[in-house]
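Repro:
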Amino acid sequence: MTDPGTQHPDSPRGLAGPHVAGTETASAAPPSLAEGCPSPARGPDGTRARPRRGIAAVGPRFLQVWYRNAFVFVKLWKTNLFPPLIEPYLYLLALGLGVGFYVSEIDGVDYLTFVAPGIIVTSAILQATFECTYGSYFRMSFQSTFDAIISTPVNPEEVSMGEICWGASRAALASGAIMVSLAAFGRLELIWAPVILALQFLVGMQFGALSLLITSKVRQTEYFNFFLSGIIFPAQMLTGAFFPLSRIPEVLQPIAWAVPLTSAIDLTRGIMLDRLGLHSLLELAYLIVATVVFMELALRNMRRRLIG
């Protein structure tokens, strides 16, 4: 009777004994397999190249993540579209028509015309913020949607970019709905509508990235209250959305201008009231730089959260 630990010399394994997984050496690998293994990417000097991270790692596959979110939104459009529009319309009626009845003019225009850009921008940031905080967190932690997506060729950066772009799309959609009402009231010239929508998409990208950065850090939804009540809601009141910045104490005005939301509101108001100037280019540049910084931080931190 042959001992199970020995094999005939003519057997495929020869005299090597029984096969144990994990004991193979590199030299024992079949030549066809060894030749087929891709070598690590190397730089010009022959050293191993570092993998791309952040924005540099984003490819066109992020559009598939955007499409997935858009598909779910369309399937549930009745509950996703109308309820979020109630609050900005209440602002429009209460502030523009209610308070505007008692306020004659601000900065040379009636109060509804003055407050309209603030309502447009605040509606945009709220849509992007809630989509990339609670929405992204539920898809990441409760539904495990992100885990399923990154098991495909889509990488974590592309998942994050898809989420940010979807939040920006929700921001532009909400802003467009408000702009239709403003056009009906005669407070918006439709010729500027595409420019304003593009600007709100940029604002949505910025606050979507900031919100996703916060989402990458929190471990339960209750912590979002600090972000919303401590940053987002107070920022709406101190950035010139509902009254001029000249009305707040001078010591707080530099702080208000340091918040990118102030530039977004002032730029939107400048487009609607035809008050653009050289300072508008500086505000636009500041918005773009802040958006890129927030996006880079959000993508890197989400990678660590998902696969770290």
